[in-house]
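Example 9 (inverse folding). The structure is encoded as follows.
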């Protein structure tokens, strides 16, 4: 061990307080930097996993023509750069007619997946496989699995020559006939099939929609029939999905794929490659993530350099006399620099490993405690047991953080080291360079000497007298160190107040969502949608039948108590003059640019939403509105107008009262389901119809008189209005749609189903005491899936989970900001301690002289309190000013989408003030402790040596 190394270590041991503070600073900065990077890498890994879960792990996809298929598939099966590969043969396409007016009339026919390379789970994970609703996947020849929308539907020949047909309503065990070998030309026309073949239906699956990501999704066809693997002798083409290994760049993958699939004759999974670091462009998510790391990491580095550099400046200032003596004895500038840098290395060897461990442990704890928040951010479904995301960080990244922290440490020590080597021996011994007047102070002295007028007393001098004057003079001589402390305190105040703003405004956003009905009010709700395509009378009757089904489901799940079902749908109606308010007309014009639904006189013609409730709920709602439960004429159907809607105006949401004085309405059954009502130029009603043309790729609009397009009509009397969304209707979307809405008794729908298009049933549930919302929600979903079939689809809205998830997300942001704030506050405390320590060390002779001339302990306390109070008040002042600006920017960004009033989080402001006062108290206690340890005789004797 060299002389200078021994000297450095002895100096660190002698100044334990400063050494400990510096090590703590290194630990904090390293832990915070490691925490930010580890959080980012873990989130990036979770996003990659989520992408694989929802889009598949395929990197390369291609549609292989018959001439190239055998060669390409053979390469994929044997290539060592292939981790997994899977294919599916397309047997052709078929058209059909049906008795259900399905939204699509083109069916693709493809085989079940065939593994080319890798395990079966790896291969099937390349794409998202369909969910089997009933039955099973095809396994043997002449078996087929169809979309669940085909259940109960009869397929008939449409005369195209390539038509799919069935032997009756399709069910498990039914027989359907499919054409094989029919291809689509560039105009969307089917070629003649090579053969036809009968298949037995063995299963139904939930339809998929995203081509390449979803196994059954096609761009050409809306639905797919799946037959067993290898059950096609002559496919029209083959779909292939591949995942690679050993290829680290996008160009490497393209270079590998070109000989197999042809130049650019394939698809790359851009989103997946982006998360794997191989995108040709940066995804928004990754740019945001990297930007966050860069900004926060930059703040940490700057704060760390400031704090650690201040500590080393203290070390150099404390040993300036010793450096002068070493220089006079022949020590070179290089040796003096190495002495300071060796101190940095010694501190780093202790602080950096501990900081890395603390950072990783802190991130692991944060990810564990915030598991619910990450589930809400990254997963579409929630469970009783939060999954969260694991801590993911590579050894290379940990090593990079260690190197970065070490470089920050050296950068912090370099300037003090350079300064120590540049001081002459005489100046170092005199310590003249350690305490300097600021430029402002020098100018003030020069002005006073020139004019003979003493400068105005500063605030500290007026408040604390002579101790205040001494404190003010010292602050002016060490302004650079003081600025570091003030900035640290101000940053901590800003972040603490920002954390409060996030909590305040996110909570208000949730409250507004509740008021508008955007957030459901029940604990759990079950919504069943009837997707049957038929005349609206048939659909409405079928939906009324679903009411009985959902009431049966309610009794199958323990822990839940159901409320009365609500049937929702739409209607086409006309309202007389005075029905729509001026605000309502503006609202409708905003959504319907041509404003052909509302007239200047307040009349209306067009679609409206309606919810049908049971008799007890209807009575309660009429009582709330102060209205009669029946129409005055005794013949028309009663209704309540819902006079509140959410209006997205200039990217912000506010409530609007669209109705004026509605008295009556006429509801119509239109001949064509694609028709809607409009007002003509004379104020009367007409019917606009959309007519499809070609292969469903376009269409035309036509307008006719209402008399020529109406099948039936009925009268509605508005018995009252509801000025807010009732709690009973909290699970409907009445207020969040762009259409006017009303509430009616269910008896009106039962009496006139043909006048309404009722398509959904909502059942709100309350949770019994002690029941778990996640378990009961899952049980309700299982019961609904087992009961609901045919063209109906059931969805469970676990509102407890959603609210908990929203709270967890807000809590996560608050936690992250609060952690950052607390660490910055600790760094600020370290800076204050170090700055005061420097002040005391460099002013030893001054203190000794002051004590010798009679400055007692009380004066010392007032002087040190004045100095600390100056730091605290300036940090608090700047911090609060900048906090207002930061909160205003946050409020501006949020209020662009939600109507919020500006307010500061006063509780957090008080907390920030208390934190600064605490820093002040600790700093004063520490400074007084150091000052009391001074000995007048020893201080003057040391100065005389």
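The amino acid assigned to each position is listed next.
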């Amino acid at each position: 061990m060299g002389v200078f190394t021994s000297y450095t270590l002895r100096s660190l041991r002698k100044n334990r307080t400063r050494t400990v503070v510096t090590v703590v600073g290194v630990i904090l900065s390293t832990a915070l930097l490691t925490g930010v990077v580890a959080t980012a890498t873990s989130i990036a890994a979770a996003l990659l996993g989520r992408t694989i879960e929802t889009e598949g792990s395929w990197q390369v996809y291609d549609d292989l023509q018959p001439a190239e298929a055998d060669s390409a598939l053979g390469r994929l099966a044997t290539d060592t750069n292939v981790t997994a590969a899977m294919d599916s043969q397309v047997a052709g396409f078929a058209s059909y007619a049906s008795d259900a007016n399905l939204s699509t009339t083109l069916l693709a026919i493809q085989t079940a997946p065939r593994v080319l390379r890798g395990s079966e789970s790896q291969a099937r994970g390349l794409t998202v496989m369909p969910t089997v609703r009933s039955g099973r996947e095809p396994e043997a020849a002449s078996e087929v699995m169809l979309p669940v929308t085909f259940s109960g539907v009869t397929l008939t020949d449409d005369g195209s020559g390539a038509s799919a047909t069935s032997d009756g309503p399709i069910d498990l065990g039914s027989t359907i006939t499919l054409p094989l070998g029919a291809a689509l030309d560039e105009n969307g026309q089917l070629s003649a099939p090579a053969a036809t073949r009968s298949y037995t239906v063995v299963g139904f699956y939930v339809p998929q929609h995203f081509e390449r990501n979803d196994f059954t999704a096609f761009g050409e066809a809306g639905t797919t029939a799946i037959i067993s693997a290898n059950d096609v002798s002559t496919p029209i083409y083959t779909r292939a999905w591949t995942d690679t290994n050993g290829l680290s760049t996008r160009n490497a993958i393209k270079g590998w794929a070109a000989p197999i699939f042809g130049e650019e004759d394939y698809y790359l999974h851009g989103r997946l490659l982006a998360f794997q670091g191989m995108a040709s462009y940066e995804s928004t998510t990754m740019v945001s993530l990297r930007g966050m790391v860069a900004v926060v990491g930059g703040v940490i580095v700057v704060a760390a350099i400031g704090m650690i550099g201040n500590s080393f400046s203290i070390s150099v200032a404390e040993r300036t006399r010793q450096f002068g003596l070493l220089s006079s004895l022949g020590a070179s500038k290089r040796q003096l620099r190495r002495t300071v840098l060796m101190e940095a290395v010694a501190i780093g060897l202790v602080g950096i490993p501990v900081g890395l461990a603390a950072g990783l442990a802190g991130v692991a704890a944060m990810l564990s405690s915030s598991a619910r928040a990450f589930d809400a951010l990254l997963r579409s479904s929630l469970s009783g047991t939060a999954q969260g995301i694991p801590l993911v960080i590579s050894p290379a990244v940990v090593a990079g953080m260690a190197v970065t922290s070490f470089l920050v440490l050296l950068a912090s020590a370099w300037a003090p080291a350079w300064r120590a080597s540049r001081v002459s021996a005489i100046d170092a011994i005199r310590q003249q360079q350690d305490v300097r007047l600021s430029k402002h102070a020098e100018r003030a002295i020069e002005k006073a000497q020139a004019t003979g007028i003493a400068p105005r007393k500063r605030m500290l001098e007026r408040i604390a007298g002579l101790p205040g004057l001494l404190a003010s003079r010292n602050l002016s001589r060490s302004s650079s160190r003081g600025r570091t402390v003030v900035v640290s305190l101000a940053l901590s105040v800003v972040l603490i107040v920002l954390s409060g703003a996030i909590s305040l405004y996110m909570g208000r956003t949730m409250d507004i969502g509740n008021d508008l009905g955007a957030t459901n009010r029940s604990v759990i709700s079950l919504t069943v949608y009837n997707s049957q395509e038929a005349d609206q009378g048939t659909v409405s009757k079928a939906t009324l039948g679903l009411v009985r089904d959902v009431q049966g489901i309610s009794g199958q799940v323990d822990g839940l108590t159901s409320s009365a079902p609500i049937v929702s749908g739409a209607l086409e109606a006309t309202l007389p003059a005075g029905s729509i308010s001026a605000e309502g007309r503006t609202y409708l014009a905003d959504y319907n640019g041509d404003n052909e639904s509302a007239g200047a006189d307040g009349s209306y013609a067009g679609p409206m939403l309606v919810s049908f409730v049971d008799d007890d709920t209807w009575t309660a709602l009429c009582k709330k509105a102060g209205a009669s439960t029946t129409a005055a004429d005794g013949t028309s159907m009663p209704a309540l107008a819902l006079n509140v809607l959410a209006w997205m105006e200039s990217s912000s949401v506010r409530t609007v009262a669209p109705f004026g004085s509605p008295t009556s309405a006429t509801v119509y059954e239109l001949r064509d389901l694609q028709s809607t009502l409009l007002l003509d130029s004379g104020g009367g009603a007409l019917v606009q119809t959309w007519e499809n043309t070609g292969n469903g790729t376009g269409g035309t609009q036509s307008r006719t008189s209402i008399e020529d397009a109406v099948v039936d009509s009925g009268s509605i009397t508005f018995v009252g209005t509801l000025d807010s969304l009732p709690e009973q209707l909290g699970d409907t979307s009445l207020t969040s749609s762009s259409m006017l809405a009303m509430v009616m008794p269910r008896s009106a729908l039962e009496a006139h189903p043909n006048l309404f298009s009722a398509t959904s049933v909502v059942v709100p549930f309350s949770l019994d005491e002690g029941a778990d919302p996640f378990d009961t929600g899952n049980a309700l979903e299982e019961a609904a899936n087992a009961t609901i079939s045919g063209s109906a689809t059931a969805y469970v809205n676990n509102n407890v989970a959603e609210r908990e998830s929203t709270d967890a997300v807000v809590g996560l942001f608050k936690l992250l900001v609060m952690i950052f704030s607390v660490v910055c506050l600790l760094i600020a405390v370290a800076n204050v301690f170090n700055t005061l320590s420097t002040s005391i060390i460099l002013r030893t002779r001054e203190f000794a002289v002051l004590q010798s001339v009679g400055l007692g302990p009380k004066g010392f306390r007032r002087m040190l309190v004045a100095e600390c109070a100056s730091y605290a008040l300036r940090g608090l002042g700047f911090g609060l000013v900048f906090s207002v600006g930061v909160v205003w920017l946050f409020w501006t960004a949020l209020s662009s989408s939600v109507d919020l009033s500006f307010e500061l989080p006063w509780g957090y402001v008080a907390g920030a003030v208390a934190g600064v006062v605490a820093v002040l108290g600790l700093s004063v206690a520490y400074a007084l402790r150091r000052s009391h340890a001074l000995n007048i005789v020893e201080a003057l004797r040391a100065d005389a040596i």
